[in-house]
Write a structure and sequence with these properties.
eleven-stranded mixed beta sheet, 14 helices, 14% strand, alpha/beta, 437 residues, single chain
Amino acid sequence: MDLASLTAAQAAHEIRSGRVSSTELVEVLLKGIEATDGALKAWALVDSDAAMAAARAADSARARENNPPLLGVPFGVKDVIDVRDLPTSAAFTPFRDRLPSADSAVVDRLREAGAIVLGKTVTTQFAHADPPPTRNPWRADRTPGGSSSGSAAAVAALQVPFALGTQTGGSVVRPAYFCGAVGFKPSRDMICRRGVIPLSWSLDHVGIIARSVTDIALILGAATRRPSAPTRQDPPRLGFLSIAVKSADACVGEAVQAMGDQLRAAGASVQEAELQWPWELATATHHVIMQAEAAEAHRDLLAQHPDSYAPILRAYLEVGMAIGAADYVRARRVQAMLRRDLTELAGSFDALLLPSSSTQAPDASSTGDSALQAPFSLTGLPSMTIPSGLSDEGLPHGIQLVGLTGHDEALLAVAAWCESVLPAPSWPSLPGNRAMR
């Protein structure tokens, strides 16, 4: 059995059954990280000793009845999310020794469910746009996306079964798509944000990157204490957002059209979903709100440590400080209108279907374009990407699905049906990786 390739749900099942020990799994993953992360650079910190101690404790607890759902399953935590006694640096030098005394709410819930923190994954600085050191596991010259760069790369590279990310624009869905993983941004405030360094108070979300829709459902249930099983008997009704396809590269649009045809052939209803406003209205509104809120969140820290800020973020914050109150209020009013319209449109279908991003993973000088993810961070609707094969260049393709706020389990059920129809995901082979299994 290739332990590193186990999904989170598979690992949990194998550990509970006694066929695999948590100690064995953690040992294999640590060896894989040692073999591959010098080139991949997905981890800001690996807490090997604590993870091994927690794995031994999980194995000792296995004989008890009513074990928690994620007993002994390791996970990574994006380095803007607090883990007690581990630095939360947010890739910001003045924070390198910042040691939280308590877990964030989401880490606390996952530990309660039996999961084990393996370490902190690399983030772009303060979860913004400056490119990270992390490489895409499929192609070292391509970005893994951002800002949850390390989380997506580590999951796709078989270094850890799942990882936490955050999304303010497209920072869970986009890197998961670029790396060929499953990425889920839940409804606004579905996962508590206590203990997460803020970027934009009204747009920040905590999300999950994993290897299957079943994984996402299991982890979401643990994080929210609302267990669910994403099953769906009937083919879904999907609303195809061709307006989003038109803004994507030809190869991306053609791939999503082909996936739509494949889903239709399997029984899904795939119909045109029409917006009453230009796509750019949502992205522009998102920019105004995010930039103004980020500038306010960082005003004091930027004044204290201007030279410690990465260049793109520093310029972004300085421009954000010039956004006036009237412009911000107008943007919030447009946000409310867009939320109503998208909610009405999404409610006409079981889910909306569109590309996960406008391009495949571009070169490592950027983290990619957030235009096809940001409208759902703006409006708080749940969104996710699931992989759908590889392009001729050997880079992951995927589709994005969007549901109704508060109906995250229904979206996962649709995604599980689509996942069963689309090509099975594959994982990159990294130098030294398989040899350690």
